[in-house]
Design goal:
The structure holds 2 protein chains of 2 kinds. Chain A contains 5 helices and 5 strands. Chain A has a single domain, classed as Udp-n-acetylmuramoylalanyl-d-glutamate--2,6- Diaminopimelate Ligase, Chain: A, domain 1. In chain A, 41% of the residues lie in helices and 17% in strands. Chain A has a 5-stranded mixed β-sheet with strand order 1-5-4-3-2. The radius of gyration of chain A is 12 Å and the shape is globular. Chain A is of the alpha/beta class. Chain B is an alpha+beta fold. In chain B, 35% of the residues lie in helices and 28% in strands. In chain B, a hairpin with a 3-residue loop joins strand 2 and strand 3. The two termini of chain B are 15 Å apart. Classes of the chains: A alpha/beta, B alpha+beta. Chains A and B meet through helix 2 and helix 3 of A and helix 1, helix 2 and helix 5 of B.
Chain lengths: 108, 142
């Protein structure tokens, strides 16, 4: 499934979308960045409530397909700008992490 | 590449937001050199953990990256406080990071374990009050 289809199916807010056609394979949830880097796999959707600028670096280095910010968590304009520069898809959901993860799991 | 291609980066100890810049540059460089995606991911994640460690604990340092056809070596050196008990520091979940670092999502006690997990060989030399050098080697998937 592509990132753009995930956006449609889950009614996600688009914050940064340089690669809408990127394929998603699996998902990972977590807010501890080192934990995410150790466990998330390439092409995963990463669901988190963490929104600081290091999220962009972690997403880039872990090579995840997209970051989904859960709970409508606030995210700074500088973080979104950096995500666009580094080619990271960032989306946002109104739902909590648990519900978001269930919705993703039903789709992939 | 019978001879190594070498790169050196200085890691700024004060700037938490720019931590990772060197790793992202290395990732791009390895991509240009046509290494496979998994090798690139292992090198860049392990190096990022090292960068973060140097920012959190050692007020920055340097990263030397040496690239051969079949092997990549990352040497992270700092002049920080040193590691009193390496075995303890290698345990997942053990961390001496402060609360402000934890609030950013770091300090989970996963840095060194992740570096070991993602590298094929890792050596740590450390001296209290003098600093720490971590040398990681990665064998390239053929």
């Amino acid at each position: 499934m592509t990132v753009s289809r995930l956006i449609d199916e889950l009614d996600l807010e688009v914050l940064s979308l340089p690669f809408p056609d990127r394929e998603i394979k699996g998902g990972y949830t977590g807010d501890l960045l080192s934990w995410v880097m150790g466990r998330a796999k390439a092409d995963n959707v990463w669901i988190t409530i963490m929104t600081n600028i290091n999220v962009v670096a972690v997403a880039s280095l872990s090579d995840v397909a997209a970051v989904v910010i859960a709970e409508n968590a606030e995210i700074g304009a500088g973080v979104i700008k950096k995500a666009e520069e580094q080619g990271i898809n960032i989306l946002r959901s109104k739902c909590p992490t648990y519900e978001t993860a269930i919705a993703v799991a039903k789709l992939i | 590449m019978s001879e190594a291609i070498s790169f050196r980066f200085l890691i700024d100890g004060d700037d938490f937001t720019s931590a990772g810049n060197a790793s992202v540059q290395v990732k791009k460089m390895l991509r240009q050199l046509n290494f496979d995606a998994e090798t690139i991911r292992r090198v860049s994640v392990a190096m990022y953990e090292g960068e973060i460690n140097m920012v959190i604990h050692a007020n920055g340092g340097s990263a030397d990256v040496n690239v051969w056809n079949d092997r990549i070596e990352v040497v992270l050196a700092d002049s920080g406080p040193g590691i009193p008990d390496i075995d303890l520091a290698m345990q997942e979940g053990y961390s001496t990071a402060k609360d402000n670092i934890r609030s950013l999502g770091f300090g989970a006690g996963m840095g060194l374990p992740n570096m070991k997990r993602y590298s094929d060989d890792m050596k740590i030399t450390t001296e209290l009050g003098r600093g720490t050098t971590v040398t990681m080697s990665f064998f390239v998937n053929s």
